[in-house]
């Protein structure tokens, strides 16, 4: 079978054809603090070990297979689309599911879903 996307999500069951033409966005979580020092210079007080990302995958398709049994806290590894974060090679990120929201439009038979993942980083 021909892959329909370069995006790979493992750890949850996704039927063939459920991910076609996905939209992937990456946001950096607010785990640190920017603060002005006594000289009025803005400093980044974020610890390097606390930097984490939120990854949102959205997909809309006609009569796409439904994904089931996706729960908050499920462990997922997502391999991002090349060049999304500037790297030519795909980057695999360990995450946990923060939310999953499916919807279906009856008349046009559109299935849409949004999967929000939070990077877990490394265990201390």
Query: What is the tally of beta strands?
Result: 8
Rg, please?
Answer: 18 Å
Shape field: elongated
> What order do the helices and strands follow?
EEEEEEEE
Assign a percent range to the helix content: under 10%
* Biggest pleated-sheet summary: 6 strands, antiparallel
The side-by-side strand order for the widest beta sheet comes to 1-6-7-8-5-2
Q: In angstroms, what separates the terminal alpha carbons?
A: 40 Å
What is the count of structural domains?
1
What ranges have pLDDT less than 50 throughout 5 or more consecutive residues?
A: none
* Helix-strand makeup class: mainly beta
Strand content: 35-45%
Number of helical segments with 4 or more residues: 0
Mean pLDDT: 80
Oligomer classification:
single chain
Would you mind describing this structure in some detail?
With 124 residues, this protein is mostly beta strands. It has one domain (8-119). 0% of the residues lie in helices and 44% in strands. The chain has strands spanning 8-10, 23-28, 34-36, 42-44, 53-62, 75-79, 92-105, 110-119. The strands form two sheets. The protein has a six-stranded antiparallel β-sheet with strand order 1-6-7-8-5-2, with no helix packed on it. A two-stranded antiparallel sheet has the order 3-4. The model has no long low-confidence stretch (mean pLDDT 80).
């Amino acid at each position: 079978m021909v892959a329909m996307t370069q995006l790979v999500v493992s750890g949850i069951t996704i039927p063939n054809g459920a991910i076609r033409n996905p939209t992937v966005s990456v946001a950096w979580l607010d785990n640190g603090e920017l603060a002005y020092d006594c000289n009025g210079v803005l400093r980044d007080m974020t610890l390097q070990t606390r930097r984490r990302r939120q990854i949102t995958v959205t997909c809309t398709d006609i009569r796409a297979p439904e994904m089931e049994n996706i729960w908050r806290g499920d462990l997922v590894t997502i391999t991002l689309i090349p060049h999304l974060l500037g790297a030519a090679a795909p980057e695999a990120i360990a995450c946990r599911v923060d939310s999953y929201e499916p919807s279906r439009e009856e008349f046009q038979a559109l299935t849409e879903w949004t999967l929000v993942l939070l990077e877990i980083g490394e265990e201390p």
